[in-house]
Amino acid sequence: MRMSSNAPAKVGRILVLDIGGGHVKFAFSDSEREREVRSGPKMDPGEMMRKLAPCLQGERFDRVSIGYPGLVVRGRIVAEPHNLGKGWMGFDFEREFRRPVKVVNDAVMQALGCYHGGRMLYLGLGTGLGAALIIDGAIEPMEIAHLPYKKGKTYEDYVGRAALDRDGRKKWQKEVLAVSKLLSDALEPDYVVLGGGNAAKVKQLPPHTERGGNQYAVRGGERLWNPDLTSAGVGPVALARPPLAHGEPGRGRAV
Question: Residue 153 falls within a domain, yes or no?
């Protein structure tokens, strides 16, 4: 389902890329159609561009938003991804697309699409684990996937795609909810959003928890080019530290 656009007319048509370990999903800000190309553990940015080229032939777009599955600091990729090939650091996307480009962590882009005020913890359940915290419009990416969790293993070892395939849905869901509670107790958000491609596999959501999904990446990609989200009822959004602006706190509601 396509979310309504908050981007002002002067921004133009935006190409949104959501890069994952299994697929690169892409869509345009004025279309309901979402498409994808396969990625995989060996895909580098050059291969991604070659796969996208025939899909984008003849398409008009003015700007590009990229959600990248790794560490991004002030719009720069500063670490190679765990679930893709190498070569992402220093890759010049603006030269390749010949358009203005904004790059953020993929969890940040999806979190931005789901956000509706207050303190929100976003957990992206995909090939790996993405996370972001938004407090009154100030976004903080969190690289928790490869931090120690228990038994010498990481959070991603328990809630990533490999754990789902290995342990089955019920055991995997139990770990997802345990991780969500642990982080909620520590960070005290108003609400938690479980997003990413595997969010639909969590059958019962606990209180103050909402279900997101990859479709919110398109809205997030639009919002990257429109930081003033007052018209959406969530106040300004800042992608820098310290927060540049603050919105009004809000209560959690169904996404």
Answer: yes
Number of domains, the chain? 1
Question: What ranges make up the beta strands (E) of 40-88?
Answer: 63-68, 72-73, 76-77
In a domain, 245, yes or no: no
Beta bridge partners, 124, equal: 130, 195
Which positions ≥6 away from 163 have C-beta within 8 Å?
A: 156, 157, 172, 175
Model's pTM, two decimal places?
0.81
Q: Where are the alpha helices (DSSP H) in the chain?
A: 45-56, 93-97, 106-114, 155-159, 161-167, 169-187, 216-223
**CATH code assigned at 128:** 3.30.420.40
Domain housing 186 = 116-215
Closest CA to 92 of 112, 71, 64: 64
Predicted pLDDT of residue 227 = 60
